[in-house]
Amino acid sequence: MQKTTVLYPRNMICSCCFVVIRQLLEKEGATILNIKPGEVEIMYDPLLHNKEFYSELLAAHGFEPIFSREHQIVEKIKLAVIELVHKAGNVNSMIRNSDYLVERLGLSYAYLTNLFSRYEHITLEKFIILHKIEKVKELIEYDEYTLSEIAVQLGYSSVQYLSAQFRQVTGISVTEYKKGGYSRTPVDLIGPQSVPAHPKKE
To answer: Residue 40 belongs to what domain range?
Structure first.
């Protein structure tokens, strides 16, 4: 008799993660019934493995399980911010961050901000800013848009506001960053430990 269960792995932030998780689980006999950011529903043979086995398998590859409901909500907030800032194109300029998160998660913004701060030791507003600045870095490096276009795309009221926030977060100016030689922070590592822009190691 096959059993079904739902796993809640951390760090499911991109399509590559979906591929890796699918390969790991299917290799060990699980059938993927549904997979989406932060959640995987599987069917498996309990005579071969149990839920704990699959959770530990994912944890060993950087996808630690999330057990409590509040932790699951925090992870969904992080995934929603990543989706809005890094994947939604010009949507960020057309909808307020708070409205987007409330619509996605079905919870009040006040509840989401309080919960996020409690578990992540950084305000939700600061977390969003860090992601926006990292997206600015990416777009600068692509060199496909002017700084004015980047400001519009990410919902900044002016280039001056974007530039000031960029310096505040990274410790350098946009002009300095454009000269090259600085490292970016991987999306899944953006948070309270994020450091200012620093030169790439040779």
So the answer is: 3-59
